């Protein structure tokens, strides 16, 4: 489970509210999903259906951590999901809802 | 982590719900007659898709979530409904990158393009100098392309693409191309010369030498992610380090081509009945062709590496480009004609010995929309002082380059 959109530029804050960028289209695939950002024309891959559930749930949860828990991510697996979300944030696929 | 999923590349080889990189050639009509045109373009085909057909196809792309299409031709902008179709696609959230020789990129058009996020433009140029370019693309084509680039730059369109097919004649100009791109705020894209369409006729005269091929590879390694390649040099991975990109043949797996009459081919370099999967006007439309055609199902099965399987580089280059093999008469499960270890050259030499050099046994470009009337001889160059860089034996009137290619502009980073 990871994405391949680039390297995280900064640590990811799991306790903040996040959401998918409006310019991103999500296409489910057998292995997970493809994401395409119409603004920066980047493509990313979600190599696991669970991370797709997390990403889609971000906007409805007060924090990324809560979106992960709701998708059934265990504490053990959480660091891997955090890395995946950080990668998505660095390529602007997801962004904070609370500004900064 | 989930239980060891297949590597991404292997997932891709099994096919996707929709293509990542779909090339759509809107017309076979073209104002130019490039000698290496992949689609043997020139004249419009009377059976080309109508505006309504095209809109229905865009609706289908939207339903399938095809994120963007690479529109080419022919010269797509000579279609009277071109801008209408671009607007229609964007309104349906299907992004567009179109490939053009620049003929219609006026200052007004450039300003309009610069305003939107969803449309990208790619200007074709095959020489960093007028002499080298026009020998391949025809008289005046250099100036047309440069004028288009200047218009885009003046309009503030950043990162449009300057797309170059690497040939023996321009392989020494890579730094000049990079400088041209930088000067115009564009991104350079280098692609491989394919022996497809009319390119099959001139391939032996235009293709880079083995030494140039190595130099191109080294240049690409040095310039990394800053230069796009549309994944087209994956056959060079045998030199060592893989170049950025997926490094796989995406034909029918992540890539396909829809031609102006709605025929669906496995890739933009394989316009030939052998790689025809169906037509978008058939029952079930494009979706059914992509998901259920026999040809694509075949391409998504594990492929045999044939003679290449025992090679140490097989995992890197996967035997190279299917279309390049097909149009040079080589077996599809053997080496690429430009195999870095020279296995392709050896196989070509055997073929030449058996059937005569570049002989009649090779698959002919089909369909062929080349103009019947030979245009003004491109050998009459504006500056006769230097040596004419290319002498090309034409068998038929030349056409235009549609250097679309798989995974254009696609750099996902190294697969894990």
Describe the 3D structure.
The complex is a heterodimer of chains A (100) and B (416). With 100 residues, chain A is of the alpha+beta class. Chain A has three helices and five strands; from the N terminus they run E-E-E-E-H-H-H-E. Chain A has helices at 49-57, 64-70, 78-90, and strands spanning 18-20, 24-29, 32-37, 42-46, 94-96. In chain A, the strands form two sheets. A three-stranded antiparallel sheet of chain A has the order 2-3-4, with helices on one face. In chain A, helix 1 packs across helix 2. Chain A starts with 17 loop residues before the first strand and ends with a strand. The model of chain A is unreliable at 1-6 (pLDDT under 50). Chain B is α/β, with parallel strands linked by helices. Chain B has helices at 8-13, 51-64, 82-91, 107-115, 130-137, 141-154, 174-183, 199-206, 210-223, 285-292, 294-300, 314-317, 322-327, 343-355; strands at residues 21-25, 68-72, 95-100, 119-124, 161-166, 187-192, 255-258, 263-265, 276-279. A nine-stranded mixed sheet of chain B has the order 6-5-4-3-2-1-7-8-9. The two termini of chain B are 14 Å apart. Chain B has 14 helices and nine strands. The chains are: A alpha+beta (100), B alpha/beta (416). The interface between A and B is medium-sized, with 25 and 26 residues.
């Amino acid at each position: 489970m990871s994405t391949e959109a680039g390297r995280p530029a900064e640590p990811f804050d799991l306790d903040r509210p996040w959401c998918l960028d409006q310019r991103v289209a999500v296409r489910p695939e057998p292995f997970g999903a493809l994401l395409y950002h119409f603004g920066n024309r980047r493509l990313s891959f979600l190599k696991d259906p669970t991370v797709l559930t997390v990403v889609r749930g971000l906007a409805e949860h007060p924090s990324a951590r809560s979106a992960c828990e709701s998708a059934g991510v265990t504490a053990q697996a959480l660091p891997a999901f955090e890395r995946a979300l950080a990668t998505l944030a660095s390529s602007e696929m997801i962004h904070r809802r609370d500004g900064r | 982590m989930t239980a060891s999923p297949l590597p991404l590349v292997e997932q891709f080889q099994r096919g996707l719900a929709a293509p990542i990189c779909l090339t759509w050639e809107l017309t076979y009509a073209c104002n130019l007659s490039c000698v290496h045109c992949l689609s043997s373009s020139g004249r419009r085909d009377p059976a080309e898709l109508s505006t309504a057909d095209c809109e229905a196809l865009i609706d289908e792309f939207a339903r399938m979530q095809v994120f963007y299409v690479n529109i080419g031709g022919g010269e797509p902008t000579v279609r009277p409904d071109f801008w209408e179709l671009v607007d229609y696609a964007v309104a349906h959230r299907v992004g567009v990158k179109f490939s053009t020789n620049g003929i219609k990129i006026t200052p007004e058009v450039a300003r309009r393009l610069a305003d939107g996020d969803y449309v990208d433009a790619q200007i074709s140029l095959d020489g960093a100098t007028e002499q080298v370019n026009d020998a391949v693309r025809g008289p005046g084509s250099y100036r047309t392309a440069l004028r288009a680039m200047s218009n885009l730059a003046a309009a503030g369109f950043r990162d449009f693409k300057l797309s170059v097919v690497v040939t023996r004649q321009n392989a020494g100009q890579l730094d000049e191309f990079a400088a041209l791109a930088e000067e115009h705020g564009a991104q350079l894209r280098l692609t491989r010369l394919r022996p497809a369409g009319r390119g099959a006729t001139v391939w032996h005269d235009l293709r880079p030498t083995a030494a140039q091929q190595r130099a191109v590879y080294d240049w690409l390694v040095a310039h990394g992610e800053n230069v796009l390649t549309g994944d087209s040099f994956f056959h060079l991975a045998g030199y060592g380090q893989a170049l950025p990109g997926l490094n796989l043949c995406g034909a029918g797996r992540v890539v396909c081509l829809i031609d102006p009459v709605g025929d669906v081919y496995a890739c933009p370099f394989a316009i030939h009945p052998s790689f025809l999967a169906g037509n978008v006007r058939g029952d079930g439309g494009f979706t059914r062709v992509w998901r259920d055609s026999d040809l694509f199902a075949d391409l998504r099965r594990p492929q045999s590496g044939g003679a290449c399987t025992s090679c140490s580089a097989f995992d890197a280059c996967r035997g190279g480009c299917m279309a390049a093999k097909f149009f040079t008469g080589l077996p599809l499960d053997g080496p690429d004609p430009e195999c870095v270890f020279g296995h392709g050259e050896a196989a070509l030499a055997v073929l030449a010995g058996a059937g005569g050099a570049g002989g009649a046994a090779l698959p002919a470009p089909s369909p062929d929309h080349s103009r019947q009337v030979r245009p003004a001889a491109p050998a009459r160059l504006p500056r006769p002082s230097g040596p004419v860089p290319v002498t090309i034996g034409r068998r038929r009137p030349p056409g235009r380059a549609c250097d679309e290619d798989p995974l254009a502009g696609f750099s996902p980073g190294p697969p894990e």
